[in-house]
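ok trying this again, last paste got cut off
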Amino acid sequence: MEYIKKALPNVSVMSQEIKDTVSRVISDVEREGVAAVRRYSEKFDGWNPASFRLSQREIERSIAGVDADTRRPIDFSITQVKKFAQAQRDTLTNFELETLPGVTLGQKQIPVGAVGSYIPGGRYPIMAAAAMTIGVPKVAGVKRIVACAPIQRGTQGINPAQLYGMVQSGADEIFTIGGAQAMAAMAFGIEDAPPLEAVDMIVGAGNAFVAEAKRQLFGVVGIDLLAGPTEICILADESADPEFIAADLLAQAEHGTNSQSILITTSRAIAEATLHEIERQLKILPTADAASQSWNELGEVILVADDEEMLKVSDQIASEHLEVQTRDPRWYLERLTNYGSLFLGHNATVVYGDKGIGTNHVLPTIRAARYTGGLWVGKFIKTVTWQDATPAGNLQIAPYAVAMADREGMAGHAASARLRIKD
């Protein structure tokens, strides 16, 4: 393995200042409720409305200005994401099985009761975000979905296109709250007018403060996953097109100055041509301010000997987004194990996953793909179990339970099981 280009040492560790700030916000919101939310909303966003919850009239007035050309791709994205989520939902089934005479065990799928979805503002108003974190739990059967989003910079409200996406995806309540205070408000609830009742789970991407809030609130509520800055890795052989590779690397690099972009290739010619192509495209890319810093500091080009080594290095990196631009992408589909979402062939760009091909774009980062997948409909469903035993079933189970409890010294357990035999 040879580094044609290597990233600078990674110093993007969550600062103690961010941790302390988020801890203070969460503690204050838990103790003071809406008063703390108002204080931090005013401090960080310059926003302190009479009510944080948008009324139906406010929603209709805002989205009325969203033109058909903007609505069309949002609607397409929601449709595709919900279609794939429904296919996933159909794989989750209830069942019951008589494992012994008189002993029946079962599995049941129960949706989470209430979910809070954070829709990020940030550098770009991501229009597909609502489909991923509102549309998917709606397919799962979640009865109440609360959406929170910060106001758009320089305005007095949520970006209208994002708001349209929230409505069309199925949000039941929408609040103009951003940052860590939004996550805490959804986790604990606030007595606003009307109130925001606490949810059972919070999901969605955001900045470092939002990510840290999710980490600190985990346990109080469930979360989707802990996601850092976006990542892309591309596997390429000599059949790949350097122009495509460069465009896809820079598309993710433009997310922010801390986005990781990696090319792993078996071809030195492809590596060198891609580097030249990146320089060419950066000169004409309107978002080069972010993309160039991200690429210069965190971009990597790795030359490997063959497909087997490319496979090994890729699984070690465990990237959030993994593109395979080789002669036989399906060879990799059968063998790769660590990635958030996989894009096969030169036509399957990560951009499609970001904007709504159907798979979810909330994915594991920072090598978390070694042990978890991304957000999916099953994340919003509790797979629970149940048991039923007849008198005949007692005779099948109780003697073993008694024997085990006696040897453990758990007298109460043994007595409980013995009663079933006596009865």
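PB: full thing came through this time. The chain has a mean pLDDT of 95.
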